[in-house]
């Protein structure tokens, strides 16, 4: 249903290009490892995040990083990416699909603070529609009295154990029924 990745500064450019389906200087789409991308449907992809409607993902990313403390090490994970797949219970290209992704954005942007969200691209040009919810993992350092980047402090074991049940409950309240968030792969047991 949803899985997360953590990335360093040097890895973000490739990911931003993937989210946007960047084209080269000749207008040709880049080649991706994922061969399931149907470029004839790429125009159906969209970004729900208002932070990158007026500036590029990379500009937003660098600007936000400049506002907080970041350890000066190459291994620091400065971006996280939740990939949330549309549940099988929801019909593709339906109003319910659109609402599902809007509610997904609402849940995750509240959880990780909207000012830290880089983008929320919905990809409809692959096998199953899904959202890439990318954000900068920022937390408040009580000891030093400042905001800092720390994927370790944001994506704790407790956070990873509670995300699916919390997301499932949010979706149940939003749709007045079980949306299939909790399944054999996501339930704790």
Describe the structure.
The chain is built from 5 helices and 7 strands, in the order E-H-E-H-E-H-E-E-E-E-H-H. 33% of the residues lie in helices and 21% in strands. Helix 3 (95-111) runs antiparallel to helix 5. It has helices spanning 9-20, 57-66, 95-111, 151-154, 157-175, and strands spanning 2-8, 46-47, 77-85, 117-123, 130-135, 138-141, 146-149. With 189 residues, it is α+β, with helices and mostly antiparallel strands. The two termini are 16 Å apart. It has a 5-stranded antiparallel beta sheet, with helices on both faces. Strand 6 (138-141) and strand 7 form a beta hairpin.
Concise summary:
The chain has 189 residues and is α+β, with helices and mostly antiparallel strands. Helices cover 33% and strands 21% of the residues. The mean pLDDT is 91.
